[in-house]
Design goal:
The protein is mainly alpha-helical. The protein contains 7 helices and 4 strands, in the order αααβαβααββα. The strands form 2 sheets. The protein has a two-stranded parallel sheet with strand order 1-2.
Length: 165
C-alpha cells in the first residue's frame, strides 16, 4: 500500500485507518475476501439484488448465487448506464443524495468524466476519467436497481425508522 500511496498520490493508508477502505494482502484482487464481505453484509442488510458488470464476473456470480443472492447483469454501455446516470445527476443537483461524506466515494465521483453520444445518452468514461471511478459506477448501478425495484416490497422504513450507528 505504501508504494501505491506514493505512486498514485492517493491517501489509501489514511482511508484504511479511518475505516473508509477495506484492503487485502498482495497486489491482485482477492475475490474470496469480497465474497465473504458481501456475505457478512447480507447478515446485516436485506440485499435484494446485486448488479454486476458481466466482464470477468462468472465465478463470483456463481459463488454469490450459491450463497443465495440474486445477481443481475448490468451493462456498462450507454443503454444501461445513461438513465441512472442522468437520474444521479438530477438527484445531486437537487441535493437529494445523502452519501455521508464518504471520502473514497467523494474522491471517485470527483474523478468521473462523463461521455455523451450523439443521441444525448451519457455514461461514465473510465478511460477519460482522471483516476479510479469504480464506486461511482457502482452507485449508478445500485441506483438503477433501486429505481427498478421501488415499491415492489414496500420500504423497510414503513416498518421501522432510520437506523443510526
Amino acid at each position: 500500500m505504501r508504494l501505491r500511496v506514493r505512486r498514485d498520490h492517493v491517501p489509501y493508508d489514511v482511508w484504511t485507518a479511518e475505516g473508509c477502505l477495506e484492503t487485502t494482502e498482495g497486489n491482485v484482487i482477492h475475490y474470496g475476501f469480497i465474497e465473504k464481505f458481501i456475505e457478512e453484509l447480507g447478515t446485516k442488510y436485506h440485499i435484494k439484488e446485486i448488479a454486476f458488470d458481466r466482464w470477468g464476473a462468472t465465478q463470483m456470480v456463481q459463488d454469490l448465487e450459491g450463497m443465495g443472492f440474486t445477481v443481475v447483469p448490468f451493462g456498462q454501455g450507454y443503454k444501461d448506464m445513461s438513465p441512472p446516470t442522468k437520474e444521479l445527476m438530477k438527484l445531486t443537483l437537487e441535493e437529494r443524495i445523502a452519501h455521508g461524506g464518504h471520502k473514497v466515494l467523494r474522491w471517485m465521483m470527483d474523478n468521473v468524466y462523463v461521455r455523451q453520444d450523439p443521441a444525448g445518452n451519457i455514461k461514465m468514461d473510465k478511460e477519460k476519467s482522471t483516476e479510479k471511478i469504480d464506486a461511482a459506477a457502482a452507485t449508478v448501478m445500485a441506483l438503477d436497481r433501486a429505481i427498478r425495484n421501488q415499491g415492489s416490497e414496500g420500504s423497510v422504513y414503513d416498518g421501522r425508522g432510520i437506523l443510526v450507528f
